[in-house]
Amino acid sequence: MSSSQPQKDSSWLPIYLALGVVWGCSFIFIKLGLEFLTPFGVAFGRCALGALTLLAWAKYKGIALPESKKVLFHLWVVSLLLNVIPGVFFALAETEVTSVLAGIINAVTPLMTLLAIMVVTRKEKPKLHQVVGILIGFTGVLTVLGAWKGLGDNPLWAILILLAAVTCYGFSFPYSRRFVLPHKLAPESIAAGQVTLGALTLLPFFIYNGIDTYEYKAAPVFAMIALGVFGSGFAYIWNFKVMALAGSAIASSVTYLTPVVAVIVGVIFLQEKIHWYEPVGALIVLLGAAIGQNRIKLRLVK
């Protein structure tokens, strides 16, 4: 019995690594998708393909989809916060900034989540490690941007909408916890309903202005397929499996892996330039997130 335990405990690791790689590659997939799609097209494409994947999986597993209008409304709000607005904003920003920078800014998500929880639950006094973590994290953001030398070639509007996108991510978690999770739906049902509602919301925008050019090259097309089927489809399933096998703390730590992957693939495959302060800032951001989540304990001198 004891000899089989380590294998059981480590069974989540391959899925965890796959999740980190897929989400880390999302930013280069977005950049490639923009070669023939508009930002609305990229956002819709990933949602539509993700919805088809999740609906097929739910059908295969015999999992019922949400039917309550109240639940569907809350799932629609979650889809706005997790899929629609960030999907458009990340794609729009990547028309001007590198996929590396977008991936690094995405690492601010745990800090925004912590900040959102503190805002939503204002009755609870913020803990010292949370305040310190947020301050360190946003110092890291300023470092990533090279604030002491301006924003370089990065337009201010692109940086602001990237930060707005991760702010949406941050508020999606306390909203889901309060309005969706109490209904005790299967995680696959939540994901399928959420991504499908996101695709339906984006459909009119795609019809109006979704395709930039009708020249379809293999790499951008396959990038969009990977972004949708894996990044917005199987990734949710894998995330739920890691949560079930290893717990939510380990599942949420995948955020520490995705910027590393984003930097590596952006530099190798797109030959994107990286400045020394971007990875340094990313490390400061991740340190702030770890302290804010109490993964790294503060030792105060008395």
UniProtKB/TrEMBL annotation:
It comes from Candidatus Planktophila lacus. It is found in: Membrane. Residues 15-145, 157-290 form the EamA domain. GO terms for cellular component: membrane. InterPro entries: AA-Vitamin_Transporters (IPR050638), EamA_dom (IPR000620), EmrE-like (IPR037185). Belongs to the EamA transporter family. It is a multi-pass membrane protein. The chain crosses the membrane at residues 12-30, 36-60, 72-93, 99-119, 131-148, 154-173, 185-207, 219-238, 250-270, 276-292. Its main location: membrane. This is EamA-like transporter family protein. Keywords: Membrane, Transmembrane, Transmembrane helix. The lineage of its organism: Bacteria, Bacillati, Actinomycetota, Actinomycetes, Candidatus Nanopelagicales. It holds the Pfam family EamA.
